[in-house]
Amino acid sequence: MTDTLALVPSGIDTYRQPIIYMHEDCHICRSEGFAAETRIRVDLRDRWIIATLNVVARGAWLAVEEAALSVSAWQALKAQAGDRAGFSHPEPPVSSSIIRAKVYGERLRRKDFAAIIRDTLDNRLSDLDLAAFITASAGDRLDDGETVALTREMQAAGETLDWSGQTVLDKHCVGGLPGNRTTPIVVAIVAAAGHLIPKTSSRAITSPAGTADTMEVMAPVALDAAALRKVVEAEGGCVVWGGGLNLSPADDHFIRIERPLDFDSVGQLVASVLSKKAAVGATDVLIDVPVGPTAKVRSAQAAAALGSRLSAVGQAIGLRVALHESDGTAPVGRGIGPALEAADVLAVLRRAPAAPTDLHERALDLAGRLLDLAPGASGKTGRARAEKMLDSGAAEAKFLAICAAQGGFREPGEAPRRTEMLASAAGYITAIDNRLIARIAKLAGAPRQQRAGVRLLVRVGERVEKSQPLYEIHAETTGELAYARAYAEAHVRALKLSEDTA
User: What is the 3-state secondary structure (H, E, C) of 251-293?
Assistant: First the structure.
């Protein structure tokens, strides 16, 4: 009997969480006392990982003398068919006691955050450990000093891009507003104006589309750092997926835990945003904070508190941070979902008569503010310069050039199945619930299905008649379409009607 097992790929995608699968009759499980959820060190040649054990029952797909690895575990070990690995109990993570201290209200120092991040990246911490850390940091449980320390350590754990002292502009939206896809337009305008704007963006966490999802409809976004630099050096800007880069890598682990917990943490949010901005080499950052009753930031007071923390942490780590508070009471544009949002972006860039006015104006506002942040900007002329870049077609040309440099431009497609939701009565649209309309888009298949989502046919303030179409649901399959429609019918308050305009 040997103390190694043959490795096989399970083909199971567990995102960034390494998982190992062993047979319940495996001799190593018995001799080492391994059970389901045990943390196991796996050694292969000069590489090792720590993975969580899932036990496979008799008669299932795994042989007794085999151990299967999840996709991320297989890639991390660089395993090959026929490899045999050793298995042992890992040393207890140093940061477990630090997390326990935070749970009980102690203030953490920079070296404490460094230990947590190091153990996170080595996968020494279980999901329960990470959930405890996220929970202990939720709300406003990280003060300014702790947030600065966490931000610095998150940045230090990965690469930082160096642009040789040049001014590098960047922007970020706090989120919570469906369809608010200003980033591709802003990047095109700012790059067309001659500035550097290497924009890294995220995929959807709890929304129907992230900026990277929408951009991927039109061009490849999974670039590495070398490819990103090549695009930016050629065109001045890019819009790529940050998960393909080693920039603030611990953040992706934290996001994986935050997604199901759905916690809001000022400190975690600030550290997440600014560590990535610092890592991409930004010098001047504009933060868009939409405020509304169903947005992520619900009140002016909450926006002020978040803005104060962003400014303080930015100053501490050497970033010039400017804030832009925007209207977060309703979705932006017409489309909600990757392809539908991409169509809105292109309509604005192409100056189409039917382009969404709100998306057009928001993009110009943000691009103008960014241009005003650049050293040497004279007065408040940024908005006029941004408008010139857009109206002249320079922004459209720059966007297509960026897409070509990233791997080639593609036109968005349209979903094959659609259904209209009709007004049950006449009246004025007084509100659109961001969360409910986003939920409908997700049930239709977005963002996993790029062409799925919702297209709004009316806006707040407009009057509708009974049986007038309010919005379309787009889906790839009849099942997803029916599911989303059933939810929409049960939640007619997604669009609120009133006899009055107020």
Answer: HHHHHHHHHHHCCCEHHHHHHHHHHHHHHCCCCEEEEEEEECC
Residues, the chain, total?
Answer: 502
For residues 333 and 361, give the distance between their C-alpha atoms in angstroms, rounded to a whole number. Answer: 10
pLDDT of the residue at 327: 92
Three-state DSSP at 418 gives: strand
Write out the two tokens for 186. 């802003």
Amino acid at 144: D
Confirm if 426 and 467 have CB atoms less than 8 A apart: no
* Angstrom distances, CA of residue 266 to CA of 141, 169, 296, 310: 8, 23, 11, 9
Instruction: Say which DSSP state 168 is in.
Output: B
Amino acid at 408: G
Strand, helix or coil at 136?
Answer: helix
Q: Which H/E stretch holds residue 29?
A: helix 27-32
Q: Hey, what's the torsion of the CAs at 41, 42, 44, 45, to 10 degrees? A: 10
Q: What amino acid positions are annotated as catalytic residues?
A: 264
- 176 three-class SS: coil
Quote the CA–CA distance of 364 and 373 in Å, as a whole number: 14
Contact, 201 vs 239, CB < 8 A? yes
DSSP letter at 175?
-
Over residues 305-344, the pLDDT tens digits come to 999 999 999 999 999 999 999 999 999 999 999 999 999 9
Percentage of the chain lying above the pLDDT 90 cut: 82
H or E element at residue 187 = helix 183-192
What distance in Å separates the CA atoms of residue 296 and residue 201, rounded to the nearest whole number?
18
Q: What's residue 206's pLDDT?
A: 78
Residue 496 corresponds to which amino acid?
Answer: K
Residues with Cβ within 8 Å of residue 57, at least 6 apart in sequence: 24
Report DSSP letters for 479-502, one per residue. Answer: HHHHHHHHHHHHTGGGEEEESS--
Gap between the Cα atoms of 382 and 392, Å rounded: 15
* The dihedral formed by the CA atoms of 298, 487, 259 and 158, expressed in degrees to the nearest 10: -90
The phi, psi pair for 113, rounded to 5°, reads -65, -35
